[in-house]
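Inputs:
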Amino acid sequence: MKDCCTLAVDAMGGDAGVGVTVPGARMALERHPDLRVLLYGDSATLKPLLAEFPRALRQRVEVRHADVAIRMDEKPSQALRKGRRVSSMWLAIEAVREGEAQAAVSAGNTGALMAMSLFVLKPMTGIKRPAIAGLWPTMRGQSIVLDLGATIGADAEQLVDYAIMGEAMARSLLHVEQPSVGLLNVGVEEIKGVEEVRRAGRILREAALPIHYHGFVEGDDIAKGTVDVFVTEGFTGNIALKTAEGTARQVADFLRRELTASWWTKLGALLARGALRNLKKKLDPRESNGGIFLGLNGIVVKSHGGTDALGFANALTHAREVALYDLVENIARDLSAKKMMADFLDTRQENGAQQAAPARNAG
Amino acid sequence: MKDCCTLAVDAMGGDAGVGVTVPGARMALERHPDLRVLLYGDSATLKPLLAEFPRALRQRVEVRHADVAIRMDEKPSQALRKGRRVSSMWLAIEAVREGEAQAAVSAGNTGALMAMSLFVLKPMTGIKRPAIAGLWPTMRGQSIVLDLGATIGADAEQLVDYAIMGEAMARSLLHVEQPSVGLLNVGVEEIKGVEEVRRAGRILREAALPIHYHGFVEGDDIAKGTVDVFVTEGFTGNIALKTAEGTARQVADFLRRELTASWWTKLGALLARGALRNLKKKLDPRESNGGIFLGLNGIVVKSHGGTDALGFANALTHAREVALYDLVENIARDLSAKKMMADFLDTRQENGAQQAAPARNAG
């Protein structure tokens, strides 16, 4: 049980626990014949559920018992105290560190999952804080947005790290060879954004990193899919994500109310039901389920806590794709290129400053 | 030409200039028989356009010549140099300071308009930086969101000021007696948001201001209309606004594409056209056009630069409503109540600290 792809699944996480994670894992196994799953949780609960799987699928699952399940409302500190080395969440992450699995997937509580991931996997060299990256449906297809709320108040260097990590993820998940990267900013003339965002823009423009940097983008560019990767700080990213989800639901709700208002509109909706079904599928948050923790020495995917089996299976599919691509190794290589470039630029800047000094005196 | 309501209109602002502002002003005059308009701009251009108005409307308009029009792409500093005392934008704002008009309306560039408004009207006592507040369509009706991008990086005291100003605006524009106020925050457990947002929450909870403070809200609460007033810092507010606008357009675009995919869906769309028309109206950004500058000694309303006559007329309607309500006086009263309360709390805290000291030693 090595090679690609073995996923370590926290079977006890999420609002519905095994009721969603087990059928979700089954769907993913059916989809991907190369997939193996380590299922962490209460074995007395899991074994009977697994017995219902067809034999061919069952052979690709291994149940690993965990005494403790982390609750959805537990604080990260509580979760760490109670769940260290014994919870399904911890053990699934540990399987990634030990090389037994290429990624861990959990629908458990985000705070606990991030705390344990940091504790077990540790941040990559040169990364201060991790980010959560998500797929975002756009008019052009899909884009990646990060950080969706792992870290609050990123400085310019962190934003550049997010750009590097998001770009690598876009290559793996969106299959774009040279993904474009934009920095979220505000368009109002007199302010032109936060100092750190402007500084990050300068670094991305001047550092000659192997990244296709597009420039600043605004909130409405996300829906347009103007770039493949949208980079922003976690507070703004989290609020933008939830605002968009809310707006999509709001428009769908308006539409439903209007279409059931009269017999004519109901008949119209009946005739156009294929179109409405397609629209629903396009807006389905389950399609893009699975926030990916970037910046750790290993991949952890956070599924939405309230998703169903299909949504959870999609999180496993996304985990498999980033695992296939060796995302962590790719990011590490890009980060060391950045480091070299930054050192080079620092040197050049110092020389430049020395040369500039006499000129200023002369002026 | 005193009393309510006289609006000073920058006729030269916006992408289409007089082609939108003049018919927009006309629509507003038709709507509101109590409305008078001071029309600032090139009188040689404006007078012939005005000659086409019915006489009864024409009597409620006064053209005031301005030599200079501020361009949409001018920087605030350029605009100030070139437009001070002579531009239509400047003169419209000045009419508010002089008490000739109760509010100024411009579709001109936001940066220049904010710079001139600050220069001419000055911030209210106790207000560090102004905010831009906007109406936002929700599932429950309408809410107010601020700051939409006037100021970047508000501290706790500024967020509390926004809460006070937004609450007064909700009373005037939404006609809610006791509007509820929420602070935008992220829901992720381990971070619980920016320190300044948490501090603002503490002040709003403990200061016993005459405000119905609901607590923290998240991005998806905006579409739900969970509270009447959403308070956030300008960078996040601007990105949330544009993300929502983009998402609404995206969903409408998906719907349009799907409904034109086959003859069946086209027929369905034809039968349901009343419903689709209503949906379009509900999502129409012209309905909520007009960002209101709050925190200045006078009201300035920023219309979207690319709107049409209907959108511009709506901005005038919103300006009239806040003028009718004496928004500035109401905000000033609330701010001084806050000041008193804050002083009282400061004193109490100091006393409390002294009393607590021996207890701590004893413990």
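Residues 48 and 135 of chain B are 34 Å apart (CA to CA). Flag for discussion at group meeting.
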